[in-house]
């Protein structure tokens, strides 16, 4: 972990600890609604164990419902304990099951410190809008809840995003933390927390039948991950061919409408079959994964990089003409050629090259499949010319269709 990441996580932990100590120092047992505290803490701990993974680095816990309810109706001390107990329960579960996701001690500490800090800020903001916090069913409470939920969730996603960027070395887009769908999901969970707080203000036990929809919510939170799996290649983590074609059709429509350039790149690894035959498919998989990582690194956030099947990859470059893309593809070609790919199964490093074919929009036939076919022709010609080369499609690229007989 980098020095910057350590300083950032340490700052959040320190701020959360300061708030926790302050909440503990003003503990007044006579002001605590113990039934609300015990119910919310127990439910938060139980639902923190339910985890729904979303694409990229997003993880949803239904416990956000009870965290947010705790902000509205619990004393600061109660909210701090609620957060600590919930995260401690999750940590114990992960350790008992011997999972890798929470091996680093600072992950749970950071999450708990962040929620404590944000909960304190949200509480102060809520009291500014609704000073009589005991009345949670008023219009002021409703307005205050909406404002606080927006601020709480936005800051939560920003803080998590910074942590992911610093510790994982990925881009902001790859984190997915600012996607509208992810923000809206957490906002709905927070508003469910408000409804829970209103019910508990009437009768604490009403929270029990009210949480029944959480089962359906938890199931629905798995949908984004299932969708992502259906659109991505499980071996490399890149998009699959189905997603690539859909993205190309959408981008092609936009490019034709606004008369903007577009480039499709088809790339094929040279002699990967020989590696598979000589060292085994696990060694070949190590090369595939390594090349996929290079491709992911060298292209822009809005470019689409996909595994097209076997040893073939496809890249969509919006707002780029083939001639303008040539220098960037050459940089990628050289990087792939010079990289040594570690294959632990055979205890050696392997080298490989890649052939590239580029094609742009054909004004007379603006069709996604036709552009892919043209890029495929160019890629075959790169192989035929000696492999480890780049070719841009032109109608006279191959006379008499001889490229069709070439074996990859």
Record keyword descriptors for this entry.
408 residues, Arp2/3 complex 21 kDa subunit ARPC3, Alpha-Beta Plaits, two-stranded antiparallel sheet, 9 strands
Summarize the structure in short.
The protein has 408 residues and is an alpha+beta fold. It contains 16 helices and 9 strands. The radius of gyration is 27 Å and the shape is elongated.
Description:
This protein is of the alpha+beta class. It folds into 2 domains: 3-225, Arp2/3 complex 21 kDa subunit ARPC3 (Orthogonal Bundle), CATH 1.10.1760; 241-405, 2-Layer Sandwich (Alpha-Beta Plaits). It is built from 16 helices and 9 strands. The chain has helices spanning 3-25, 34-48, 64-73, 76-96, 105-129, 139-168, 172-175, 180-202, 207-210, 213-220, 223-231, 241-258, 272-279, 281-298, 322-338, 368-384; strands spanning 52-53, 59-60, 262-270, 304-309, 312-318, 341-343, 348-350, 353-360, 390-392. Helix 1 packs across helix 4 (76-96). The longest helix has 30 residues, at 139-168. It is elongated and about 85 Å long. The model is unreliable at 399-408 (pLDDT under 50).
CATH architecture of the largest domain: Orthogonal Bundle
How much of the polypeptide forms β-strand, as a percent range? 5-15%
Shape: elongated
Largest sheet: 5 strands, mixed
CATH level 1 name of the largest domain: Mainly Alpha
Number of domains: 2
Number of strands: 9
Taking the alpha carbons of the first and last residues, their distance comes to: 42 Å
What is the CATH fold-level name of the largest domain? Arp2/3 complex 21 kDa subunit ARPC3
The helix/strand order is HHEEHHHHHHHHHHEHHEEHEEEHE
Helix content: 55-70%
| Mean residue pLDDT | 84
- What is the number of helical segments per DSSP (H or I, 4+ residues)? 16
Unreliable stretches (pLDDT < 50, length at least 5) are 399-408
The SS-based structural class is: alpha+beta
The side-by-side strand order for the widest beta sheet comes to 4-5-3-8-9
Query: Which value, in Å, is the CA radius of gyration?
Result: 27 Å
């Amino acid at each position: 972990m980098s020095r910057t990441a350590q300083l950032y996580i340490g700052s959040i932990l320190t701020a959360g600890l300061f708030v926790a100590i302050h909440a503990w120092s003003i503990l007044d047992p006579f002001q605590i609604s113990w039934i609300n505290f015990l119910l919310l803490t127990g439910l938060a701990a139980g639902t923190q164990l339910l985890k729904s993974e979303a694409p990229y680095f997003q993880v949803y816990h239904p416990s956000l419902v009870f965290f947010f309810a705790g902000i509205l109706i619990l004393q600061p001390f109660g909210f701090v304990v609620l957060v600590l107990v919930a995260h401690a329960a999750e940590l114990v579960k992960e350790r008992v099951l011997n999972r890798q996701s929470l091996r680093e001690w600072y992950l749970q500490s950071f999450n708990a410190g962040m929620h404590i800090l944000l909960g304190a800020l949200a509480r102060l903001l809520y009291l500014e809008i609704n000073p009589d916090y005991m009345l949670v069913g008023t219009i002021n409470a409703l307005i205050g809840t909406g404002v606080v939920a927006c601020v709480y969730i936005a800051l939560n996603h920003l803080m998590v995003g910074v942590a992911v960027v610093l510790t994982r070395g990925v881009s902001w887009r790859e984190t997915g933390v600012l996607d509208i769908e992810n923000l809206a999901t957490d906002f709905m969970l927070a508003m469910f927390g408000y409804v829970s707080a209103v019910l508990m203000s009437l009768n604490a036990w009403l929270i029990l039948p009210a949480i029944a929809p959480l089962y359906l919510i938890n199931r629905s939170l798995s949908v984004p991950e299932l969708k992502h799996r259906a659109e991505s290649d499980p071996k490399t983590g890149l998009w699959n061919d189905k997603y690539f074609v859909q993205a190309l059709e959408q981008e092609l429509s936009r490019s034709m409408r606004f008369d903007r350039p577009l480039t499709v790149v088809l790339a094929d690894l040279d002699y990967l079959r020989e590696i598979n035959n000589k060292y085994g498919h696990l060694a070949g998989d190590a090369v595939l994964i390594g090349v996929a990582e290079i491709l992911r690194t060298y292209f822009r956030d809005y470019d689409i990089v996909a595994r097209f099947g076997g040893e073939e990859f496809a890249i969509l470059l919006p707002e780029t003409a083939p001639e303008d893309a040539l220098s960037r593809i050459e940089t990628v070609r050289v990087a792939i050629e010079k990289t040594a790919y570690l294959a632990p199964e055979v205890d050696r490093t392997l080298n490989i090259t890649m052939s590239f074919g580029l094609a742009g929009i054909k004004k007379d036939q603006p069709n996604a499949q036709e552009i892919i076919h043209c890029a495929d022709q160019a890629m075959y010609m790169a192989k035929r010319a000696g492999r480890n080369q780049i070719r841009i499609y032109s109608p006279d690229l191959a006379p008499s269709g001889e490229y069709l007989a070439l074996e990859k």
